[in-house]
Tyrosine decarboxylase
Amino acid sequence: MGSLPLDALQPLDPDTFAADSSAVVDFLAGYYRDVDKYPVRAADLEPGRLRRLLPEAAPEFGEPAERILADVRRDVLPGLTHWQSPSFFAYFPMNASAAGFAGEMLSVGLNVVPFMWVASPAAVELEAVVVDWMARLVGLPDRFLFSGSGGCGGGGGGGVLQGSTCEAVVCTLAAARDRALGRIGHEGIVKLVVYASDQTHATFQKGARLVGITPANFRVVPTAAASGYALTGAAVRAAVEGDVARGLVPLYLCATVGTTGIGAVDPVRELGEVARRHGMWLHVDAAYAGSAAICPEYQGYLDGAELADSVSMNPHKWFLTNMDCCCLWVASPAALTAALSTDPEYLKNAGGGKPQAAAGAGAIDYKDWQISLSRRFRAMKLWFVLRRYGAAGMRAHIRRHVAMAEWFERAVSADERFEVVAKRRFSLVCFRLRGGGGGGDAMNRELLAAVNASGRAFMTHFVVEGKFVIRLAVDGAMTEMRHVGDAWELVQRTAEQLLQRR
Ligand SMILES: *Cc1c(COP(=O)(O)O)cnc(C)c1O
């Protein structure tokens, strides 16, 4: 098939749609079949490679899908780091699944935009249902649900699906800021102080900057090995009391359940009590480990969540939901919408049809719960995953990964050349070759670089108390025990070669 004449362009012709989409599905099925044969990290790390391969300008006339897919295979795949490889253990893997893909396909194909209830009522209502389902699954208290145990409209709170924790954190910071400024006046913004630990995700600092917190008022509370690198109520209280004594206003405390670096868990209840005493907004960031809380054995980590103002987690990390999907729950939707709502004339006509008492029934204007106006129909994807695998299937998925991480942790502990650096709680193992001082760090850096250069596995690192540690995050959808076993063998063999050379 040659070029496509302009007058024949029918972008949504159902037959072409079916043909092109099936070609893509076949392409992806083949990719998933072969993905373990690719070097996990992009083999060709030379910058500018793709620009040299591709033409200077866009084609003047359209081309058939097959030709484009052939170029994806030839030019793009070799330059990708394969996040769906079963031997991808870096960062936190981003989950994909047949159900996540099917739901995403539906969402992308329907392409509705649920920014207000009337703009697509069932899409908005499905989102409200699905965030309530998720809240129940992870054991959140009723105050974060649209429908609490009291029945219709009983929860008082509610949730929204956003694209990332970064966005969710910015929204809650804005809500907390405006609530505080309503009390102390807008000039008081220079007095607002936010608190987090030295393990908190960097997104929090960025969010605080974005909402106008003075950089000098960003407190990084140090953590230590003795507390498992968790914040302690005492340390936060000391920092807060010092600030109050200097006339500053404590605004916001970020607690993390499962930190990115080493999987540390801040004590939510203890921190909630400090936050309550000082009128601070408490946010619980459970981006990665929140998924584990669907298993009763991990729900204890969210104990005290009734003292929080907001909680977030990313189903796209460990909940088989393709990018992107972040659940944000708030106890007071009014605090969120007070900071984020807009009411332009061009949207008013559309809002006219909303039933008065419909808010409790899910008639939500989600545009007022987030930064952007237009938004994706993410609920379809998460709903599809929950329906397709069920709570029991999802618990099995989490436990399977934890069991593999446990095996790796035991293997590392049994080899006296290595040490496990921080306590493993979920599916993240932090380890290193023993050996103190800067020499030890250099050796571990070399070990990680050699493991990744092999293309047989991909891991990343973190630095704890000045020590370089290697992170193995086991949560890829296709990862099986044999891949974790191979990764350990690769680490051992590479370490042997390194140690021999020294
Ligand atoms: C991954 C992660 C984030 C950032 O999530 P995004 O959705 O990429 O913004 C924040 N906090 C923790 C604990 C994380 O693990």
